[in-house]
Amino acid sequence: MGWDKDIDEIKTRRALAKQQGGAEAVARQHEKGRLTIRERIDILLDTDSFNEVGEGAGVPEYDDAGQLTDFQPANFVLGFGEIGGRRVIVGGEDFTLKGGSPNPAGLRKSVYAEQLALKFKVPLIRLHEGGGGSVGGTAQEKKRRPLGEPVFTTSRFVPLAETLGHVPVATAALGPVAGLPAARLVASHFSVMTENAAVLIAGPQVVKRALGHDLTKEELGGPQVHLKSGAIDNLASDEEDALRQIARFLSYLPDNAWARPPRLSCSDPVDRCEDALANIVPKDRRQPFQMRKVITDVVDREGDATSFFEMSRKYGPSLITGLARLNGHSVGVIGNDCMYYAGAMTAAAAQKLRRFVDFCNSFHLPVLSFVDEPGFMIGPDSEAAGTIRHGTAAISAVLQSRVPWASVQVQKAFGVAAQAHFGPDSYVLSWPSAASGALPVEGGVAVAFAREIAAAPDPAARQKELEEMLAASQSPFPRAEGLSVHEIIDPRETRPKLAAWLELAQAAQTDPPAPFMATMRP
Amino acid sequence: MKVKVTSEIAGQVWKVVANVGDALAADDVIIILESMKMEIPILAPRAGTLAALHVGAEDMVSEDQTVAELDVS
Description:
Order of helices and strands of chain B: EEEEEEEE
Largest interface: A-B, 15 and 9 residues
CATH architecture of the largest domain in chain A: Alpha-Beta Complex
Number of domains of chain B: 1
CATH architecture of chain B: Beta Barrel
Largest sheet of chain B: 4 strands, antiparallel
CATH class of chain B: Mainly Beta
Radius of gyration of chain B: 11 Å
Mean pLDDT of chain B: 94
Structural class of chain B: mainly beta
Low-confidence stretches of chain A: none
Strand content of chain A: 15-25%
Helix content of chain B: under 10%
Radius of gyration of chain A: 27 Å
Strand content of chain B: over 45%
Largest sheet of chain A: 8 strands, mixed
Structural class of chain A: alpha/beta
Shape of chain A: elongated
Number of domains of chain A: 3
Number of strands of chain B: 8
Helix content of chain A: 25-40%
Mean pLDDT of chain A: 93
Oligomer: heterodimer
Number of helices of chain A: 20
Number of helices of chain B: 0
Distance between the termini of chain B: 5 Å
């Protein structure tokens, strides 16, 4: 008699672990229109690439004869796998067991996800659906007085914080996510949620008891709330879309901070000049234009699609942020959207910019900046939001950048906030529609020339005259003459000019890539 | 079915372009706001008949305010 009985028990335990919360719980999950964690991992990863970690962690049950009768697995599934042939670590709560609220083995495995990502320097993906701890503690703790973790234990939040500087982290909220899982959800470079997901610090019952608000989960933390709050970057139409977005996000990034982003082959002609760009900016500065069209006309097309992958669209919408490729190189893209407050920098847009620029620096992504900045947002709401501090922090982040920067001045670059669009050594291209100065003519003339305008026989005519005179002084031509910009260009030349610069800038990146560190910011 | 048309920005109504009863295609202009010295259109989110207008010229509009309703049934 050898080890056959034990080997059989391993098989039995594995089979029991795959049952998750049992057939009924899995059916309930499907009735809610949601997949199980194992189905999600299966869709996300390349076929048969999942290599599970801690498959045997859980709680066994035995009969009086000592025979295994059941096995409740850890309710966090974890393992290595591949996406498009690139190695990742993926993990997520099993909602079919205790609603994803961690059982003891589940908690251990979830905390281990970050440690594995740090140790093996591979991208981390967490697919969240579950609650945090229960006030009663875990089942094990209920049987005795909880001792807590020993004093020498490293806090689980240490690796959670470190991962952001070392490896790309992408997360999804695919159902209700509360407490610790919610904190882990946002400890990411990219997060996505489905329509029926909710992200909560505490659920409706706790909120009602403490504050008297009678709100549903969705009203508290649905997509309508968190895409605007900035807690979550993108909305997904369904779970498959969320997983596709995560795979797409990772396609732009290196495996870790010690590597540069992958370069893909590019079938889009590098000298493609789009005629539409020539007159996309209206001569009348009151008329808006579509900055997204500018961006997508310049960056690579991949088949019928654009390589531009926008992130955080609803948060601080006066600034557009996203990833793209130019001649196959991954780049970070920022651009002002004049459809929102003329593209002015709000407190939210400033925080979005700071986070995005730090992200680009963490993974060595050159930045393409499409500039149409009228300045910081003004008015009482903007002052109350502390925009000046957030804005100055964003400028500091931009000017502490170590990645190559190119700035295309499409239209406005006014005030202090304009500095947030030019890196420390930016390659600057100016379109003929560019206008620069301390502040826009329309606002500045009335203030600076108040007495002169009031004293004029026809004040309105004098103001218009002054505005026209000063608008001419904001022209980009003198700046090109003085080499204050590298080139003034026909807008159609933007793609070839940027692509040529990027080849040079990338070739000059000779230092080995390493994690990015910055000082305190305002 | 009625769909609310909201403004994503604060501003002042500069011009009302569409009339109640108009058949609109998606992205047709309903209202033009003046905000930060620019003319920003509020567009029909999808095709439908303009069922109601809740603002007129020179009215102040706040972020997320419902400015019109579209009948899409």
